[in-house]
Structures are given as C-alpha cells and as structure tokens.
Amino acid sequence: MYNPDAKGSVSQIRDVTINIRAKQNQRDVIDHAAQVQGKSRSEFMLESSYQKAQDVLLDRSFFELDELKFKQFVALLDATPMPNEKLRTLLTTPAPWD
C-alpha cells in the first residue's frame, strides 16, 4: 500500500517480496548502474522504482481552484517572465558539451 510518509531508504525493515523477470541486457544495464552507485542490484532497483512511483503519483496531484483563482493562475503561467539576470545568464551560456 502507498504510504506517503514512508522513506525510500534501504535501511528500513522489509516485509514483502517483489519478483520481476527481465531480459539479460536489461539486467546487465541495471547491474552496471548499481555498481556505479556502489549499491546492490536490489537496493538500486528498489530505490529507483520507489522514486519513479513517487514521481508518477506527484504528477497526478490535484488541486482545486475557484474560477477567479484559476484565471489568475493561468495568467501567471502565460505571463512573460520578469527580467532575471540569473535566468538570462543560464539561457545564454553555452552548454559544456557544445
């Protein structure tokens, strides 16, 4: 069951098992990524899938606005950003890989 207060830490006591099948190349990539992060395959997979699950659920968060507040919200989203030197610098600085 989803528990928004639960942490994704591998140090927690685990009381359920999750079994999945994967293709050999998928497992190899997962193993390599886990090794890069100094984690076991299980730690890496649990933390990664837990984070993805949180992202999916947060992307579907609902908030309710009355008509006036919704119009104000849309106007803020549609408005031209205020002058911001840090944003200008970010957008005009070439990427390191360019």
What is the topology?
Layout: H1 24-36, H2 41-59, H3 67-78, H4 85-92
Helix pairs in contact: 1-2
Any overview of this molecule?
- With 98 residues, the chain is mainly alpha-helical.
- It has one domain.
- The chain has helices at residues 24-36, 41-59, 67-78, 85-92.
- α1 (24-36) packs across α2.
- The chain is flat, with a radius of gyration of 21 Å.
- It starts with 23 loop residues before the first helix and ends in a 6-residue tail after the last helix.
Brief overview, please?
By secondary structure, the chain is mainly α.
Keywords:
single chain, 98 residues, mainly alpha, 4 helices, flat
Low-confidence stretches: none
Basic shape: flat
Strand content: under 5%
> What does the main sheet amount to?
none
Give the radius of gyration.
21 Å
What count of structural domains?
1
The topology string of helices and strands comes to: HHHH
What is the residue-averaged pLDDT?
Answer: 88
- Overall structural class, as computed from helix and strand content, comes to mainly alpha
Helix content: 40-55%
How far is it from the N-terminal to the C-terminal residue, by CA? Answer: 45 Å
Count of beta strands: 0
List the total number of helices: 4
